[in-house]
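Checked the freezer inventory, then went back to the computational side. Two predictions to log before the end of the day. The first one is the construct we discussed on Monday; recording sequence and C-alpha cells without edits.
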Amino acid sequence: MLKIWQRFKDISIQEYSKLYQRLGVTFTEYHSESMYDKEAISLTERLKHTGILQTDSEGKGYIQIESDKGIPDKVNILKSDGTTLYITRDIAAIMDRAEKYKFDKIHYVVENAQHMHFSHLCGAMNRYPEWNNRLNEDLHIKFGRIEGISTRKGNVVFLKDVLDEAANRFKTSMMAKKNYKIDEKDIDAVTEELGKSSIIVQDLGQRRIKNYKFSWERIMYSAKLQYCHARLCSIERSSGFTLDEDFTEDPLTTNSQAEELVLHLEKFEDVIQESFSTLEPYLVVRYLDQLCDHVNTAYKT
C-alpha cells in the first residue's frame, strides 16, 4: 500500500510541476505533511512530559487553548489508538521549519474553509513558552473558491484543460480577424500567453477572500491589459523616445488626460506597498485596470 501511495505521490508532483512551469511558478522545495509522521509521534511524547498534552475520558490526546473569542477550546492531536492527526504533523512541521529556516513570519496559503484548522494550529503553538504568542491571524492567507467548478460533485475540471481552452479561444478569435499582425509561427506562443495571463488576472482580480464565478467572457476581457501593453510598446518603438531623454512638462499643463495619467503612475509604489502589507494581489490588478483606462483616454487626445 505504501508503494502504491508513493507512486501516486510521485506522479502527482510530476504533473503539478509541469503545470507550475507552464504558469511560470517555481518552488525551492516540496514538503508534505507525511514527511513528519515520526516527528509527530515524538512530539506527542514531549508534550506529555511538559503537561501541555492532556487526555480525555475516551483516551484522546488534546491541547487546551483559548479560541479567538476567548472561549476555552480543545485541539485534538492524538487519537485514542495512539495515532497522530493532520494537525499533529503540522505542529511538528512548523517546529522543524522554525529550526531550519529561522523565519520571522510563516504563511499558509490555503482556502478559507480551513480557517478553524489554522486557528487551532496557532492556538496550540502559542501554548509553548518559547513561541510567546509569535503566531497570529497573519498565519493563514485565506482565499475563496471558484464557484461552478466542484470535484466533490464529480464535475472534475483540470487546470490543464482550462489553460488549453483559453489559448484555443484566443486563437479562434485572432484567426477570425483579417488584420491580425502575428506571424503564423508565433500564434500558438502568443495565444498561450494571452490565455495564461487572462486566467491569472481573473483569479487575482477580486479580493482574495471572496468566492467568484469562473467566466470565459471575463477571461477574454482580461486580455485588455495585454492589448494596452502591446499598444504602448508599439508607440514606444515608433516614437524613437527613450526614458533617459529630457521629458518636458508642457503636455501636463495643456492636457488634463495626460495629467491624470501621470498622477495615476505616481501611485504605483504606494499600491505595491499596500498589496504587500495586506497580501492582496487584487490591488495591483485594479491599479493596472485603471491604468489601461487612463492610457486609452489619453491616447485619444
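The second is the one RB wanted added to the comparison set:
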Amino acid sequence: MKRRSISAAALPAIGHPLDGGFYAGRVFFDGREHALIDAGREFQCDAQWWDRLGPRPSIKAAMSFEDGLMNTHAMAEAGSAIAQKVLRMVIRGTGCWHIPSIRQLEAMRSTLLQLDAWDSRHRSQAEQSFADTHGFWSSTANNCGSAWNLTMHPWCTPRTNWGKDIKTVRPVKTLLIKEATFIHQPYSDAPPALDLSGLASSVALAEVLERFVNEDTGRFYGRTDELIAALATLGSQA
C-alpha cells in the first residue's frame, strides 16, 4: 500500500481536478497530512458492504476511522466483493482507489457539499451530487457484520447498519502531502529567553549596581523602584 505524494503548493482549489478525481481537502491520519480525492458521481455504485452467505464477519483490520485504503484492503482480503471491485478500478487512467473511511466521508461532506456541483439539497441532478436515499458506505467496520455509513446532508451524523444492506459506495484516493521545511521556529506560548551575555562587560551597569549593593556584605540597600528606574535609564541609552 505504497502511497504517492504531492507538494502542498501543487494542491488545487476544492472541487478542481486532481490525479483522476476532484480535490476534496486535507485529512490527517497516521501522523501525516493527506490530500483527499473524490472519484465523482459517475463512478459511484450501489452495493452491499458484505454480500457473502454465512456468519457475519468481524474484520478487525478494517476498523480504522481514518485510513480508508487500509480498511478496503482488509475487506478485500476477507472476501468483500465491493472492496475487491473498488481496488481494481482504473478511473480516468489512474488507480489506487478505495472505499472512504468514515472520517474521509465526513471531510468530503464538510468541503465538497459547499459547492453547487456536489450539493444535493436543492440540485439533486448536479454534476457530482451526493444525492441518494440510503446513505454512503464507509470502509470502517463496526462489530460483527455492521459498518459505518453517512447520508451526505449537513445535519446527518454517522450511523451503523448491517453490511448486507445496499448503500452507495463512492471511490476515493489519498496522496501524502510532502512536509515543507520550516522557515521559522514553531510557535510557543513560552516567553522568549533573555540574552544576558553582554551584562558582565557593561561598565555602566556595574556603576549602577555599586550604588545599591554593598560589596562587603553582598546585601542590597536603597529602594527597589530607584534601582529599576536606574536600570531603565541604562536601557534607554543603549
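For RB: The mean pLDDT is 88. Residues 224-237 form the longest helix (14 residues). Let me know if you want it refolded.
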